[in-house]
Amino acid sequence: MNQAHTTTLVTGASRRIGRALAQACLARGERVVAHRRIADAVPEPFAAPVDAWCWDMLQPLDSLPAQDIDHLILSASLFERGHAWNALSADGGAASASAEERERFARHLQVNLLAPWELAVRLNARRPLRSVTMLLDTYLDRSFPGHAAYQVSRAAGAGLVRALAAELTPCRVNAVAPGTVLPSVRDPAQRAEQEDAIKARTLLGRIGAVEDVVDAAMYLRDAAYVTGEILRVDGGRFKL
């Protein structure tokens, strides 16, 4: 298919990795449908015109983009600091903490699992997709305190990749599982400390770059004989 006649829908396209993915598709001369959560939030201009589509992924999917979609790149996700199971709350004790965690699980599963599933299935039913590429997390099969809801939703996302690959064939469904490519703290000293810690646990001895993730996602999107795969882009972080 001529790239000029290819349309790619990128979720979470307003910022960070999602924006970089949208820019990569534009650089290829493709038409891009750039999803954002809130209609009133206007992102910085892209390198070329895009078609905007708004959907709060915590809400039901009421309608699809008007454009026919060839490739779907799912980069939007929900990440928030949580609590370990049975953590005590200063306000309401264990019962309150359990209720908060239940709500947190519901949000993460909706944004990181159910919304991607529904969007991919409904788009493919309207007109068969050529590919679906998800962004997961290199922690998808490892647990760490305080992020149970996020980690479980990402582990379920790995199962979703394999399930959709079987259900939507011949559409190819794959995922990239990035390590840390963008610092999670703004303070320069804390950021340097965080990056040093990551480098010490990574075989390649450096923190990743957004371009590393974009390159991997575009490879999987275009790989004609690859489906149901999850590609870690973490510099060998868990090989040590």
TrEMBL record:
Annotated keywords: Oxidoreductase
Residues of the signal peptide: none
Protein's UniProt keywords contain Cytoplasm: no
InterPro entries (alphabetical): NAD(P)-bd_dom_sf, SDR_fam
Gene Ontology molecular function terms on file: oxidoreductase activity
Protein family according to the UniProt entry: Belongs to the short-chain dehydrogenases/reductases (SDR) family.
Protein name as annotated: SDR family oxidoreductase
